[in-house]
Amino acid sequence: MQPPSDDDRSGAQSGAPDPERRIDLREAIRVARDRISGSKGAYMAMAGFYVLVLGGTGVLFAVPIAEALFPTPTDAPVLDPRADAIVVAFLALASAPFQGGFLAAGLARVDRRPIRFGFVFRHLRMWPRFFGLALLIGLVGVVTAAWGVVGSMLSLAVSILLGFAGYFLVDRHLELGDAMIHSAKMVAANAGAVAMFYLLTAALGLLVVATLGIALPWVVPFAAIGTAVLYQQGAGLARSHGDEDGADASTRP
Questions:
Q1: Tell me: the pLDDT tens digits for 25-65?
Q2: Which of 206, 190, 137, 150 has the alpha carbon at shortest distance from 25?
Q3: Would you put residue 175 in left (φ > 0), alpha (ψ -120 to 50) or beta?
Q4: 73, exposed or middle or buried, with CB in 10 Å at 0-12, 13-18, 19+?
Q5: Which residues of 122-148 are buried (b: 16+ CB within 10 A; e: fewer)?
Q6: How many CB atoms lie within 10 A of CB 121?
Q7: Report field, pTM of the whole predicted structure over 0.70
Q8: How many angstroms separate the CA atoms of 104 and 162, rounded?
Q9: Any alpha helices (H) in the chain, and if so which ranges?
């Protein structure tokens, strides 16, 4: 059987995640660490492009328009919540076309397939679903910002629960609502492992700061590939990842 293409993996199948499937965090870390080699250049190029798009959108459009519509007093510590919502909408719109390609790159690396910068332009047609997902998560953050610590925790919980919805969009071609439901169920069934992985990536983020960015080419692919492995395991799609000497991964039937 031929392996799935880069554009349309055989994950187009729908269906709920296996509730009995559990994430093997140690295996996910091992696979992510193993797949960093050959990924750093492409991931840094994609991440740099992403930062340029978001930064340019924020500086040139989002913030000026938000400030013009809802001026913030000079002594105010934060933007007006309505201005925040406008910024969130602009950033969600700017990033939506490229989110699917970034996630697809992680899935490809899990299968030991090569990736390149052009991956970021794949799945452009799925931008409305990614826009809806990013807008929802962003607006939850805006609404709960005034609730202090409780609001921050709630916003973080929503972000984590929906954190795998994008993979269900790209890999199984689900509708947005179904993808969010499947992601929440998967995270709920593997809350401990998912939380530990996010804590690990947060610690690695501190390492990036401590090394003045030197660790970034290793941390970005590790986090992206590791998250893709968690998705495959938690959704019941994990297959043999081969051994450390480079054996090819088996493909999903």
A1: 999 999 999 999 999 999 999 999 999 999 999 999 999 99
A2: 190
A3: beta
A4: exposed
A5: bbeebbebbbbbbbbbbbbbbebeeee
A6: 13
A7: yes
A8: 17
A9: 25-35, 40-57, 63-69, 81-110, 127-144, 148-161, 165-172, 176-189, 191-210, 216-234
